[in-house]
Amino acid sequence: MIYFDNAATTLIKPDCVIKADEYALKNLSANAGRGSHASAVKAASIVYEARKSVKSLTNCDDVIFTFNCTDALNTVIFGTAKRGGHVVTTVYEHNSTLRPLTELGKRLGVQFTAVTPNNHGIIDPSDIERAIRPNTYLITVNHASNVTGAVAPVAAIGNIAKRHGILYMIDGAQSVGYLDADMREIGCNYLCFSPHKGLHGTQGLGCLCVRGNPPLAPFRFGGTGTASHTLEQPHDIPEGFECGTLPVQSIYSLIAAITHYNKMSLSTKRNLSLCGDTLREELLKIRGIKIYGKYNNLPNIVCFNIDGMNAASVGDILSDEYDTAVRCGLHCAPLGHKVLGTINTGAVRASLSYHNSLSEVEFFVKAIREIAK
Amino acid sequence: MIYFDNAATTLIKPDCVIKADEYALKNLSANAGRGSHASAVKAASIVYEARKSVKSLTNCDDVIFTFNCTDALNTVIFGTAKRGGHVVTTVYEHNSTLRPLTELGKRLGVQFTAVTPNNHGIIDPSDIERAIRPNTYLITVNHASNVTGAVAPVAAIGNIAKRHGILYMIDGAQSVGYLDADMREIGCNYLCFSPHKGLHGTQGLGCLCVRGNPPLAPFRFGGTGTASHTLEQPHDIPEGFECGTLPVQSIYSLIAAITHYNKMSLSTKRNLSLCGDTLREELLKIRGIKIYGKYNNLPNIVCFNIDGMNAASVGDILSDEYDTAVRCGLHCAPLGHKVLGTINTGAVRASLSYHNSLSEVEFFVKAIREIAK
Prior knowledge:
The structure is a homodimer.
Chain A: E1 2-3, H1 15-27, H2 38-58, E2 62-66, H3 69-79, E3 86-90, H4 95-108, E4 111-115, H5 125-131, E5 136-142, H6 154-164, E6 167-171, H7 183-186, E7 190-193, E8 206-210, H8 248-262, H9 266-284, E9 289-292, E10 301-306, H10 311-322, E11 324-325, E12 327-329, H11 334-340, E13 347-351, H12 358-372
Parallel strand pairs in A: 1-11, 3-4, 3-5, 5-6, 6-7
Antiparallel strand pairs in A: 2-8, 7-8, 9-10, 10-13, 12-13
């Protein structure tokens, strides 16, 4: 089986991640931050170590562990909301940003502007700046589009956010593990991602990284293991934002995933770029193939259509006849597909990871060539 | 090490649960409900099977998978909220119910009445009924107190809820896996629990069971893999409530956990009751021990204090000198501790599971006897 749906989740995990998860399940999964007995303290120390790993990865001040990236994005969007305020974002956002913003419109009259990309498919920072209004309190930008892989000029936008004194969030769902996501360099206040994608961690965990003590109101309310005498939710980061039991095994395996990523050889990274570039170049040679997003792309995402074919049909043939997994349709990113002109047809997304090989790419290109005939 | 903190989380998981988690991580963890390729379909079928398992366990119509029980409780409390409405609950609720209700008071002016138990430490259904007001829209009751283990007369309260046409939620965090939690028999609309407690599943998963098509508005907003063209959150259960990637490995291991629970021998269950009863009876014989909640208790929770000692000190001695884990303090249940008169001292909670033995109970009783001297 060829798995080219790594932008949805990386199916193949490093051994060290699987072993860490299993070890924690067997030995370490007490309730972190609840109770002072040895096993609870040990679990808490694992969570502490994982926070340190994430801090070193993203250069953040603190980390809130969540259910997934969507949960992290919701926490920021609802936790920074200002009645009657305005948010600047882009058409490349996932529904995990666009739908909470739409809901905010109903609850608090928050409006948002979704900036469109330039002719090269890239968000222009000056368009972000032009979209700012006097009541804009948040800029939120997808670091890399999950549709085309287009990378946003996040540091330039960071300068704009700083200059205007506006909070700034990055959706790092697709970027973390493939691009540098240093919050200081980007100049953002919040960075959300989920380890089960580019970092090849396990599902069931999201990370909300914060930097520079930005405002944040709790999204979920409940037991925090702190200030238990009061019915008021503590607002401390991270405790006030981590109600209920955390998944210690996923958090322990995140340490392994980050260690694995940090130790990754240059040749592994180069292999991914080579695979992605080859895929892109070889698909372009096939008659009737249209590729979306040609400039400044993630190394691992190639999005395309075959003339006259519905994306879903291409995906079905790939799955049924070539045992190959891609993601077809709208990728939960309707505004991006509207701009690409693919809102009705969808598109085929092939997304690679470090485990894919050039021979898989060759097989895939051959398959597409046959389907396109 | 003796682990008597199973009400926080069960540290020792059955082999089948660990193996299932590991197998799913290695082989099955595509993105369930996202994409139509074979591995995504396989992941979706696992989620479907897990829903079936939960349905057969709780007699519910549908299951929403969440981060943990707190996340499930938040989903119902915020998803049923009525501006200016009133909620009836009990002092035995966990902060995962009380804190969202407190927040609702600020957001929408929702008020709540927390009913106190009778002299036997049990909630009287007639007190629930007396607390109902014309604007009461929800009754929410902790099936079993996480402090004393006191079991609420949930079916009798269910009759009251039905008679008054009021929505009814059960917090099954402590009960599921130790008591029957059949939603039809209870007559509730929502039942929340987390598999990592009584069912000995893994952390990082909660279940929100619904029955009888009750109203529910989404709590989290984002990609659902459905209706991707629209920025409006679908309200379908479960899709509209499961935004972002689900933890397939935890969901797969839940099937194993429920199978393991269903196959559990009568002697295993009797052993737990014997251990709990023995612990309770033997502690009562020690001078200066006060036990909280003597009637209609869970088999596995015994909550007590030693005269003149702070609960935390007892816990520290147990951990340091006896390598024994209990949970001391307020157990995130401040109103219950107020009623018990332990809001300043806290209490010691010993909570057992099916893995504990009578010899551990004997060791523990001896330890408490020595500490109490």
